Structure formats: structure tokens, C-alpha cells
Amino acid sequence: GWQVVSIDDADRSDYSNTLIINYRAPDALVDKLSQELDVAPSSSPFSADQVNSIGTSSVDLRIVLGRDILPKLHE
Questions:
Q1: pLDDT > 80? residue 34
Q2: Hey, where are the domains in the chain?
Q3: 54/75 Cα distance (integer angstroms)
Q4: Beta-sheet pairing, 61-64 with 19-22
Q5: Exposure of 69 by Cβ count < 10 A (0-12 exposed, 13-18 middle, 19+ buried)?
Q6: Helix (H, G, I), strand (E, B) or coil at 22
Q7: Where do runs of H (alpha helix) occur along 5-64?
Q8: By the 8 A CB rule, do 56 and 19 touch?
Q9: Whose CB has fewer CB within 10 Å in the chain, the N or C terminal residue?
């Protein structure tokens, strides 16, 4: 299973595509999750310095659910 450390609302509600934002998770994990959710992994919107400043955080990746995930939830 997955260790979920937080569930919260996104910063906005108009995401059309689901995002998997990788901060420091292994690429193989991101690829597996992308396949399970049937979405493309996204590049982190943060610079390397910003990602490094997160250093002590327990967040390895973030998933932002977009409208494209809704039909998949009803399968």
C-alpha cells in the first residue's frame, strides 16, 4: 500500500488533468503510480533549490486530481 501523509484541497479547483508531481520519489515508483492511475507523470513545478528546501518534509510526491480522473473512478 501507499503511506498517505496528508489529504487536502488543491490550491485551485480547475485542474483538467491529474498531476503526479515528483519531488524525490524513485522514478520506478512514479511510473508504477502513473500506470495505476492511467495518467502521465508531471514535472515538478519547483526549481531544484525549492525541492531541496523541502528536504525535511515527508512528501516524496504529490497527486493533484483533475477532472480527467472522474470517469476512471466510475469504472
A1: yes
A2: 19-73
A3: 36
A4: antiparallel
A5: middle
A6: strand
A7: 27-37, 48-53
A8: no
A9: N
